[in-house]
Each structure stands twice: as structure tokens, then as C-alpha cells.
Amino acid sequence: MTARARNALRRPVFIGAVSVVTFIASLVALIVVPQQAKREANAIRPAAEARPDTVPTKNSLIAAERQVTAADAAIAGARTALTQLIAATAAAADADTTVDGVAITSGARAVRDSIAADIEELDRLLTRADNAPLLGSYRALAEAAPLRGDAPVKQLLDSLVEIERERESYNAVGGVDPVFVALTARANELGRNIQALVAGRRSTMQRDLAALFPPPSAAASALAARPLPDTLSAMFRRDTARVVAAEVARRLARERVELQRLDAREARARELANIGASPAAMLAAALVFGAMLGFGIALFDEVRRPRVADSYEIERATGVRVLGVITPLAPSPERGRRASDRNGPPYLDPGADGHQLIYLTIATAGTDVVMLTVAGDNPAVSAIVAINFAAIAAQEARATLLVDTDAADTVEMALRLSASPGVMGLIDGKVSWPEAIRPARTGRDRTIDVVSSGHGLLPIEQLKELLSRDIARLSRRYDAVVLVSAPEQVSMGLPTALPIPDVVYCARTGQTPVAELKKALEDIALAGCRVRGVVLWDAPDPALLEQQAVPQQVRRETIAVA
Predict the structure, then answer these.
(1) Could you point out which of 307, 441, 465, 537 has its C-alpha 20 to 30 Å from the C-alpha of 301?
(2) Selected residue with higher pLDDT from 48 and 22
(3) Which residue has the higher pLDDT, 561 or 98?
């Protein structure tokens, strides 16, 4: 977390941008908005006439609840009266007696009820025969349960069934037959006789019933005359009152919700109008909040995507040794005394400890010829490291060749050289090595030979073929050969075209992601190259990239003029 916080602090531009935006937003929220608070408070404060009056609604609800209570009381009274009527009817039934004044037993009451049921059934069948004088009605009348033991009725029923059977046989023949008409008349006559016998039987049963049991008592007649309590109308009135009460209750609830909403608006208006913090305090709070938010966002981004913090983290994460740490170039009075130093490249500092450590690590490998490929995620950083390495080799009396294979051509800009066909011209066959090589001064009496990239995307296969073909001849002339290449070229095996495929990768503090650094080193190792170590650039990015905005057409015209 310390490394992540340190990397977050290395992004002052990002933190400053977020802080400025947050400061402006906080300033608007804490100072400009409160100035409009009173006007907004007056705008949202509800008018007095907009508040609903709940007193009439409350009175209506009380009246409706009273009606519901009255309806419930009426239903209770009707149910009580019905219960009393049922009890009185039962008592009258218990007081029922015979003609002799003897109380009717349950068996006698069953006989009476049976006779009454038989009379009721005969009345129904006789009414049916009167309304529909058909053979079926007469047959049903003769087959009634009270007449099953009556011999005359049974005899007439048998005759009627026989006549009906003969009549059906004639009816199947079709047409009007006198015999069919005679049979029909005879059947009707038998039916009327059956009806007369049944009527007589009913009269006999009615006389028997009247002789056995007296007419209803006065109490029974009074009970029968009393009207039944009407509970349905009372329940309807009760339900209507409940519906009215529920509607009034809902209206009262809506009015109370509206009052709560208006109270909330009133409270909000008072809150807006009561802002009393001083502008100075709000300004200071906005500054602090902006700085904290800017740093917090930078730290969150750093934690989410960690970047290289120091050499220890590189070695711990990748297992590759850090050869040197390049710190910002300190101003030296020695560089201002000589014109060659004043007019030389601004990033040339072969005496720096970091560059010296890199050279000592590579040059003490026990070979007379030093070959090194420098790559990194920033072309300008890779070019500066390679230039200083070549300058140190020149100071060590080594004939040094610096070849730039990166399309960015930062070596040419860093050494302030004029445009040249470079490696692109060598591949196309436009120039030879002596024509492509240009000397660059790295000190008062030291120079290095430089071959620029030629301002174009170099085909990797042709480039590897060029180096493989000419490296033996170049090795006889130069003691140190340094390549500046793009990471993509190195991962595709460009250093393997050299007899010594040593590679140094340049990482930048606070900018190179740890995951990308690990992947780049793994890809370089898989390509067959030997990773000698990592160079940590612990300084601001070089300003060489600003010179890359020069149009490519202008560069090509410069080459043609040369």
C-alpha cells in the first residue's frame, strides 16, 4: 500500500485535474447553491390555502362510524327477536294436546305429521290431474303412497293400464280409428273415477285428522301471525354504512398524506433558508474535499492496476535483476563551461551512476564484443538509456555502433541528427552501411556511429535477415553494438539475429504496469532472448515525444535533399 500511495502521488496532473473539477463542483454546491436557497425555499414553500382541512372529513368519519354501530345494533336486535320467536314456537309445539287434553307424544305427532304429508301429496297430485287430465297424471295419482292399499283404486289402475296398453297398440298403426277413440274415452272415464276416489280418500283423511287433533291454539296462531324479523335489510344498511365509512377513511388518509408532503416541503424550505456556514469555511472544505477525492481516485486506480514503484517491487514481481535506477539529471556547472556540453544532447549523462552500473553489468560478461538490445514501453526512455550506454562504451575506448530499429526514431531526435534513410534505406537497398552511418559526438573527443530507423515501420523478417547477414562484418569493426528496438520487435526474436541476444528492458516508475512488465519479460524469454535485467527510469518522461509531431512528408523531403 505504501508503494501504491507513492505511485498515486506521482500523478500530480491527474490528481490536480480531479481536484479542480471536484473543487468547482463543491464550490457550486457549497457557495453558489446556498445563495439561491432562500429563493428556492420561497418557491417550494406551500401556500396556506393548499393545505387540506381534515376537520370536516374527520366529523364525516365519526358520523359514518355511528351509522355502522347503529346498523350492527339493529342486526343484533333482529337476531335476538328471531331467537325468541324460535323459542316460542318450540314452546307452543311442546304445549300441543289432543282433543281430550292429553299432551301429544312424539309417536302421535309423527302420525299427525304423516297424515298431513299424505294429504299434502294427494293435494299436489289432484291439482296436477285437474291441470293436465292425462293418463300419466291419473296413473301417478293411483300409484300415490297413501292409496297403495285401496282395492277399488288398484282395480281401476289395472283397468287403466290395460286400456292404455291397447290404446298404444292402435296408436302404432296410425290414422283415426273408432276403437282408439272409444278406448281413449274409457281411459278418461276411469281416470275421473280414480280422481273421485282419491278426492274422497283425501276428505276422509282430513276428517280423521280433524277428529284426532284440535285446531291450533291461540298462542300458535299468534306466533304464526307474527312477522319474521328482517335481518337482510338490516345487514344491507350495515354494509352500506361500512362502505361509506371506508370511503371517508380513505379520503381522510389521502388528506393526511398530502399534509405530510406539505410539511416535508415546509421543512425543506426552512432547511434551505437556515444555511449559515461562512463562505471561507465552505471554500476550505471544497479544497480539502477536492484534494482528498483526487488522491483517492488515483489510489483506487493504482490499486486496481498496480504500476512499478521501485526496484524492489520489480525484482519481487518478476524475479529479474534491476541493473540501475535512472534519476533526474542534476544541474552541473561542469556542463556549462564547455560549448560542446552546452550544445550537446540534453539527456546525455554518461557519468551518472545508473548508466555506469548498467554498463558495468553488461560489459563485464567476459567477451571482447558487447552486443545489447534496449527496449521499453517508452521509446524516448529506451533511446536515452541506449545512447548513454553507447557513450560509456565510447569512453571505454570501444568502437561503438548504435542502431535504431524503432519506428519512432527517437535516437535521431535525442542526438539532434539530420534525417537519414537509415535502416529502412538499408533494407530497401538504397544505401549501404557506410552511407547510413553518421557520427554523433558524445563528449569533447568521443563519438559514436549511429544508424537511424529511417522513419517507417520496419519489416521484422527483413530486418533480422539484414542483421544476420552483416553482423559478422560489423563485429570486426565495432567492439560494441547497441540496438534500440520496440518491445514487439524484441518479442518476435529480433535480438536472436545477433550473436549475443542480450536484452535490457526499461520500465518507468509509477507508469509501467507490473502485469505488462511481467508479460513483456516472459514474451522476450520465450522468443529466445536473454534478459539481462531491467532499467528503472525514476524521472519525468523525456520531452522527445513532442518532436514526433513533425509531418512525415517534411522528413522525407529532408532525406531527399541530403
Answers:
(1) 537
(2) 22
(3) 98
Cα dihedral sign for 313, 317, 322, 325? negative
Do 530 and 421 lie in one domain? The reply is yes
List the CATH number of the domain containing 321: 3.40.50.300
**pLDDT the model gives residue 273:** 57
- Give the sheet arrangement for strand 438-441, strand by strand: 322-326, 530-537, 502-508, 370-376, 480-484, 400-404, 447-451, 438-441
> Do 138 and 159 lie in a common domain?
yes
Per residue in 319-335, pLDDT (tens digit) is 999 999 998 876 655 55
Asked if 299 and 2 count as a contact pair (C-beta separation under 8 A), the reply is no
Mapping DSSP to helix (H, G, I), strand (E, B) and coil, where does residue 482 land? Answer: strand
- 233 is a domain residue: no
Q: Residue 433 falls within a domain, yes or no?
A: yes
Long-range contacts of 64-71 (CB under 8 A, 24+ apart): 64/241, 64/244, 64/245, 64/248, 65/245, 67/241, 67/244, 67/245, 68/238, 68/241, 68/242, 68/245, 70/241, 71/234, 71/235, 71/237, 71/238, 71/241
Same domain, 126 and 37: no
Least confident of 128-132, 348-352, 398-402: 128-132
CA 279 to chain centre: 41
pLDDT tens digit sequence for 503-559: 999 999 988 999 999 999 999 999 999 999 999 998 888 876 444 444 344 333 333
The reported pTM is 0.53
Q: Which of 172, 189, 216 is the last residue of a domain?
A: 216
Residue range(s) defining the domain that contains residue 351: 311-328+345-561
Q: What is the mean pLDDT of the chain?
A: 79
For 504, the 3-state DSSP assignment is strand
